[in-house]
């Protein structure tokens, strides 16, 4: 829920920058991830960059339902595999998530999955 708010704001934007997909606002294709400030127009209402495209973001703790272990990925990735793969490529809107199966204790390496460092924000009176 926090990721979705950071990405779409209180207006619940479909994309971090507005209501329509614009490929020039995100890393939609390529051969590697890009620096976080490469697409300044991608900023969400809260000023977060790269909330769509670049790398899938691991945003939730591990869930174990006694049959499967999984987490959720958000945002999408620049990488679009030419075959069936466990993580669909391309940028995705703020209301999309991918259930990511954790198949072993090593958590499986995947160069298109990243994470976002967060910290609690306080207003000026709580600093």
UniProtKB/TrEMBL annotation:
<dbReference type="Pfam" id="PF03781">
    <property type="entry name" value="FGE-sulfatase"/>
</dbReference>
<feature type="domain" description="Sulfatase-modifying factor enzyme-like">
    <location>
        <begin position="2"/>
        <end position="118"/>
    </location>
</feature>
<protein>
    <submittedName>
        <fullName>SUMF1/EgtB/PvdO family nonheme iron enzyme</fullName>
    </submittedName>
</protein>
<dbReference type="InterPro" id="IPR016187">
    <property type="entry name" value="CTDL_fold"/>
</dbReference>
<dbReference type="GO" id="GO:0120147">
    <property type="term" value="F:formylglycine-generating oxidase activity"/>
</dbReference>
<dbReference type="InterPro" id="IPR042095">
    <property type="entry name" value="SUMF_sf"/>
</dbReference>
<dbReference type="InterPro" id="IPR051043">
    <property type="entry name" value="Sulfatase_Mod_Factor_Kinase"/>
</dbReference>
<dbReference type="InterPro" id="IPR005532">
    <property type="entry name" value="SUMF_dom"/>
</dbReference>
């Amino acid at each position: 829920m926090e990721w979705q708010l950071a990405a779409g704001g209180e207006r619940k934007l479909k994309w971090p920058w507005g209501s329509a997909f614009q490929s020039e606002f995100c890393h939609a294709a390529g051969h590697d991830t890009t620096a976080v400030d490469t697409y300044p127009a991608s900023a969400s209402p809260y000023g977060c960059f790269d909330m769509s495209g670049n790398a899938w973001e691991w945003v939730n703790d591990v869930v174990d339902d006694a049959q499967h272990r999984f987490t959720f990925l958000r945002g999408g990735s620049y990488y679009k595999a030419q075959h069936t793969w466990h993580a669909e490529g391309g940028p995705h809107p703020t209301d999309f998530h991918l259930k990511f199966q954790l198949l072993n204790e090593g958590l499986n390496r995947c160069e298109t999955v990243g994470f976002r460092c967060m910290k609690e924000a306080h207003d000026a009176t709580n600093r």
